[in-house]
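User: Teach me something about this protein's shape.
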Amino acid sequence: MALNMINMPVNVSNNENAGVHLPVKKNNKTKLHRIALEDIKNKAELNKVTGKTGLEKGKKVEDQMVPMDVSAADLAEAFSSQLLPPSVENIDAEDDGNPQLVTEYVNDIYKYMRTLEIKYSIRENHLDKQTEITGKMRSILIDWLVQVHLRFHLLQETLYLTVAILDRCLQEKHVQRSRLQLVGVAAMFIAAKYEEMFAPEVGDFVYITDNAYSKKDILRMEMIMLDTLAFNLGRPLPLHFLRRYSKAGNADSMMHTLAKYLMELSLPEYNMVHIAPSKLAAAALCLAMKLLDEAPWTNTLVYYSFYEEAQLLPVMKQFCILILKSEKAKLQAVRMKYASSKFMKISMIPELKSQYIVELSKESE
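Assistant: First, the predicted structure itself:
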C-alpha cells in the first residue's frame, strides 16, 4: 500500500457581495400604524390586569405594582451552587473577558459531553459478533491509518474521530475481511470532512490504497457508514477532555505531549476500546504528571475530571504495560511518530523506562 504524501489543491472562494446592505426607504404611514397598534395593545393589557387584580381605575399600573420580596438568604442560596469548594481553583477566572472561551457555559458543555460519551459508547469486546475480523486485524489497520494521517498532515482530532467511527460501525454492522481497509479509509474520509477545513479528496484515498478501491467504492461505503451511525458523529474525543484537564492541572507542554502519546498508543489496543474518552484522558495525564514531576492528582483535577486517582489506576496500569512492550512491538507507527522533534521526541524519554512503570505494570498481573 502506497503511503506517499499527496499535494492537495486548495480552492478558496470569495463572495464579494457578502455583507452589503441596501438602503431601505422609510414609510411614515407604516410608522403611524405601528404606534396606533401599540396604543390599542397597551389599553387592552391595562383593562385585562384591572379586571383580574382589582386595580384602581385612573391610576397607572406601574404605581400599583408591588415589588417581589427577595431576602438575602434566598440570594445566598441561589448563588451557593455556583461556588467552588475551598480547595478547588477556578481555572476559568482569567478567561471571563474572552467570549470564545464561554466561561459561563464551559462546565455545562463538558457535563453534556459526558452524557454523549455514554450515549455513543463502544462496548467491551465489540468485535465478538464479527465472523471474519479480529482484534489483531483492527490493530494493523489503525497502525496503517496513523501513517496515512501523518502523510496527509491532518489534525489530531481527525485521527481520534476516525477510530471512533470505525469502532462504532464495526460493533453495529458485519464487515467482510476484504472490506476492512475500505471501512477504515471511509472512516477517515468522513472524519476529515467533519474536522478539517480542507479535507483530502476521495481520489487521494484511492491513491493511498494503491487503487485497491475505486472512488465509487469509498463513496458507497461512506453512505453505508453514515446510515449505520444515523449521522451522529458527535462522540467526544479524549483530546477534548485532555485539554480541559491539562488546564486544571497546570500541565506544561511536556506533560501534555506525553499524555497525548499515551492516549494515541492506546488506539490500536483492542482491550482498551471500551474505556470512556474522559477516563482515558484523565489516566493519561495522571500518569504523565507522576512520571515527569511526581505531581499529585489534586482536588482541582478531581473536581473538573470527576475521577479520583484510585479510579484511574487500572487504566494507568494498562498504559504502563503498553509502554513496556511498545519498544519491541511489531506495530511502531505511533512510537515512531512521537520520536520526531515535532513531538519533543517524547516516546524516547528515559522516564518511560523508570522503575515506577515496571512496578505499576506488575500490579496488574
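Now, about its shape. The radius of gyration is 28 Å. Confidence is low (pLDDT under 50) at residues 1-27, 72-81. If you'd like, I can walk through any region in more detail.
User: That's plenty for now, thanks!
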